[in-house]
Amino acid sequence: MTTPSQTVGPFFGYALPYDGGPDLVPGWRTGAIRLHGRVLDGAGDPVPDAVVEIWQLDGDGRVPRRQGALRREDDAFSGFGRCPTDLDGRYHFTTVRPGAAGDGSAPYIAVQVFMRGLLRQVFTRLYFPEDTAAHAADPALNEVPADRRATLVAAAEGERAYRFDIRMQGEQETVFFAF
Which intervals hold domain Intradiol ring-cleavage dioxygenases (predicted)? Predict the structure, then answer.
């Protein structure tokens, strides 16, 4: 007999978030940026119990090689962060702008969303608006229809902040990738 599938959550709110999870680097670190946004459902309402996870390269386009830990020390960069959404669907991270990987892709942050009602987490990417020329050559971004690419590009808010709303369904639904 096969065990039936279960949806993701809401149990993850007790096991996955941890203190300092949204802070890939401390806010005082040179080059630190703030990345924030909201997770919204198909009706445009906030998802108050999702978990957003990011994975990224460092500012030089390299995979961090330091041994990981849930408690980050000094200005160490892990390349991984996790943040639960609040009652208004908001999440935030303090991180660095990733460098390009050198494989023809534009700098990006890999994003996963876990939330109730999903059988598996969903995967997307966050690109930066300053990298328009690199977007034109990015292999993954070029697989996305031109009229949907904007859902993968964060909005700059000043010099050190970016907003990236994740729309799960409906108008301006974020593009999700299958792996």
Answer: 33-170
